[in-house]
Design a protein that fits this description.
With about 375 residues, this protein is α/β, with parallel strands linked by helices. The protein has helices spanning about 10-25, 70-85, 85-90, 105-110, 135-140, 140-145, 155-170, 170-180, 195-210, 245-250, 275-280, 300-315, 315-320, 325-335, 340-360; strands spanning about 25-35, 40-50, 55-60, 95-100, 215-230, 230-235, 285-295. A seven-stranded mixed β-sheet has the order 1-2-4-3-5-7-6, with helices on both faces.
């Protein structure tokens, strides 16, 4: 039984492709133009599909939307869905399973949450002609990204962030920082000024491999928020009236919703589930969640993001990825040295994947709820 995590992007991709081929999956690859990994290797989004052609019911899982968070997502796709045979069993029962591996390969390879243009992909799925500006972020940007910081001073930054948290309150600070912002290209949670390469790839995947399904169960795999090791299912949609209740039936009382104030995540805009909902249109049902695995306390995660932003403002990518500051990033998003965390993550993922597949199997054709 595979329960290990890959040490880097290249080996994560190799393990995924090998397991997908062994499982008999149909593979497709999209190579990122103009960029290579720190080892000189190609950076790609790969998809693997198991199941009947044009399956009416489809489970879709996505890893690496936030780059470095792909260590966890890739391990779960490879280990649970492919090597443990969960996807093959579902396909044998008539449900299609689509695995989208490393949606942000640049961030995965360079230990970044953002892409090659400092864009947070999970804030990029908006109308860039009229982006949803986040005025609250403007007031905190200079604290998060000091313009005159020639060296990274964690002590000074912790002091500044603590003062900001005390002044605004933890909830308001999290909302200001994480909602998504579209004015500061060097800032945190920047949603970009145009559709990113990864967004265009994902929209192609939706149009060509997802849009024909009658019902999609969607799971975007993430790390960094919530109780350490816990896998929180956060409701991300479905636009039909029964979507919220349907998701509750699938995932039980553990299901949270950012908009209801029950989640470790505050409301965000422009996430990947938007593209699935748009692609399915009014005729298809979507039951979408983010599966979020907690790692470190929120202030430590924010410090890691600030450190990473400073690194990539001041050093070339090949130097930045070797910096000791990347240890903060790994601790915040892929604490794979912790055996208990690994065990919790795998156990919870098996449970949630099973809930999604059971929910899809139980759904009756034409039943909107």
């Amino acid at each position: 039984m595979a329960d290990t995590f890959p040490p880097d992007y290249s080996r994560a991709r190799a393990a995924f492709l090998g397991a997908a081929e062994e499982a008999g999956a149909r593979l497709r690859t999209f190579a990122l133009p103009g960029h290579l990994g720190p080892d000189g290797g190609e950076l790609c989004v790969d998809t693997a599909y198991l199941g009947p052609p044009s399956a009416a019911k489809l489970l879709v899982t996505v890893s690496g939307t936030h780059g470095v968070e792909g260590f966890c997502g890739s391990a779960l796709q490879t280990g649970v869905l492919l090597e443990e045979g969960v996807a093959r069993a579902a396909a044998g029962a008539g449900t299609g399973v689509l695995l989208v591996h490393s949606l942000n390969p640049y961030g995965f390879a360079h230990l970044r949450r953002v892409n090659e243009d400092n864009v947070d992909l999970n804030r990029n799925f908006v109308d860039h002609a009229a982006p949803p500006h986040n005025d609250a972020y403007d007031a905190v940007h200079r604290t998060l990204v000091p313009p005159d910081a020639a060296a990274f001073d964690p002590g000074a930054l912790v002091t500044a962030l603590t003062a900001l948290r005390e002044r605004l309150g933890p909830q308001h600070l999290q909302e200001a920082v994480t909602r998504g912002q579209y004015r500061h290209r060097d800032g945190l949670f920047y949603g970009g000024h145009a559709p990113s390469w990864s967004r265009r790839v994902f929209e192609t995947v939706v149009a060509e491999q997802i849009a024909g399904a009658a019902h999609v169960g969607y799971i975007d795999l993430h790390t960094g928020l919530g109780e350490r090791g816990a896998g929180e299912p956060i409701f991300r949609g479905g636009r039909d009236a029964g979507a919220r209740e349907r998701a509750h039936r699938w995932y039980g009382d553990a299901l949270t919703a950012s908009e209801e104030g029950t989640s470790s995540s505050t409301p965000i805009v422009g996430n990947t589930a938007t593209a699935v909902a748009d692609g399915l249109g009014a005729g298809g049902l979507l039951t979408a969640i983010t599966l979020e695995f907690g790692t470190r306390p929120g202030p430590e995660v924010l410090l890691a993001l600030c450190a990473d932003t400073w690194l990539h403002r001041h050093l070339p990518p090949a130097e930045a990825v070797r910096s000791g500051l990347k240890d903060l990033v790994r601790a915040a998003f892929c604490p794979t040295e912790d055996a208990r965390w690994r065990e919790q993550v795998f156990r919870r993922a098996r449970e949630v994947f099973g809930q999604a597949l059971t929910g899809l199997a139980d759904a009756k054709p034409g039943d909107p709820a």
